């Protein structure tokens, strides 16, 4: 059974940085495209970034130039480096295996002074 476990969330001031991690188990990780999504209170879950098995990436317009998605296949881990954080980035961030449809439990990111 595939499991995804996110970590790295927390409280950060505007302009700060965080790095989220998503560790996968029980899957052929290197063959799967992975994504980060987020859901703010009262809003629908939205796609933030995706990375393919060949490491091509795509980003939501709202995070382009500030966020970077990457993966370490040996560690079965996908990362989301978030820089220049804004209050509107506040949300629960979820990791997703785009081939299997598996979701992690989410990690809270709060950007506030």
Give a quick rundown of the structure:
The protein contains no helices and 11 strands.
Structural notes for this entry:
The model has no long low-confidence stretch (mean pLDDT 95). The strands form 2 sheets. Strands 2, 4, 5, 6, 9, 10 and 11 form a 7-stranded mixed sheet that branches. Strands 1-3-8-7 form a 4-stranded antiparallel sheet, with no helix packed on it. The protein has strands at 3-7, 10-12, 18-25, 34-39, 46-51, 57-59, 67-72, 77-82, 91-97, 102-103, 107-111. The radius of gyration is 13 Å and the shape is globular. It is 0% helix and 50% strand. The chain is built from no helices and 11 strands. The chain has 113 residues and is mainly beta. A hairpin with a 6-residue loop joins strand 4 and strand 5 (46-51).
Shape: globular
- What is the total tally of β strands? 11
Distance between the ends: 40 Å
The structural class is mainly beta
Helix content: under 10%
Q: What Rg do the Cα atoms give?
A: 13 Å
Written as H for each helix and E for each strand, in order along the chain, the element string is EEEEEEEEEEE
Strand content: over 45%
Poorly predicted runs: none
Instruction: Provide the residue-averaged pLDDT.
Output: 95
What is the helix tally? 0
Q: Key features?
A:
mainly beta; seven-stranded mixed β-sheet; single chain
Task: Write the SSE topology.
Elements: E1 3-7, E2 10-12, E3 18-25, E4 34-39, E5 46-51, E6 57-59, E7 67-72, E8 77-82, E9 91-97, E10 102-103, E11 107-111
